[in-house]
Write a structure and sequence with these properties.
about 190 residues, mainly beta, SH3 type barrels, 13-stranded parallel β-sheet, 5-stranded antiparallel β-sheet
Length: about 190
């Protein structure tokens, strides 16, 4: 990552529409709209009330507003996010507060961006999960229940092993991304009809 070329420093209160190239770090307060194809860093001291469209977003501070990160969005403790996030690559560190919906879409090439609109929902990784205990199969975005706790969650990512990352949607872990054994998951609908 490039060093920030521009910084909105601590104690600064900025209102309006912000467009930039390169990397920008916000340490102060910003209200309005942010548009860039490059990198936006929201530091731990920052408070942003804005609709954000950017390439890469790295957050440790607070954002109130919807986010579209065309390359990736990373949220680090003690970030607080209130709004929906759309991105092909999403990362939540343990301890991040998130209230909203996340949508993972395929990263578009420059040619695809000008040729046709992206499909409404396409995960960035293969979505079929190997069958878990009981013959169930899952996909990124599925609503599931963690059987050991009975809490609802959404499948965020998976690997070739025995574990999957889920975004907890209820209980004391609400908004946290946790790693769970695939055998501990069941489809939400199957859980409510049983």
């Amino acid at each position: 990552m490039d060093q920030p070329r521009t910084v909105i420093g601590p104690g600064t209160d900025f209102n309006g529409k912000l467009s930039f190239e390169g990397t920008l770090r916000i340490d102060g307060t910003f209200t309005g709209e942010i548009v860039t194809n490059d990198t936006l860093i929201v530091s731990e001291t920052a408070r942003v009330n804005a609709q954000i469209t950017c390439g890469t977003l790295i957050v440790s501070g607070e954002i109130n507003g919807n986010i579209e990160a065309k390359t990736a969005a990373e949220f680090h403790k003690p970030a607080k996010i209130r709004g929906d996030v759309t991105t092909p690559s999403l990362s939540f560190e343990k301890g991040v507060f998130f209230h909203g919906q996340s949508r993972m879409v395929a990263e578009e090439s420059e040619e695809a961006q000008t040729a046709a609109p992206a499909p409404s929902w396409t995960p960035s990784r293969p979505t079929a999960m190997p069958r878990a205990a009981g013959g169930q199969s899952f996909q990124v975005g599925d609503q599931v229940v963690v059987s050991s706790s009975g809490l609802k969650a959404r499948v965020m990512s998976m690997d070739d092993g025995d574990r999957v990352k889920v975004l907890m949607g209820s209980g004391p872990s609400r908004g946290s991304v946790v790693s769970v054994a695939k055998s501990e998951l069941s489809h939400e609908a199957a859980e409510t009809t049983a």
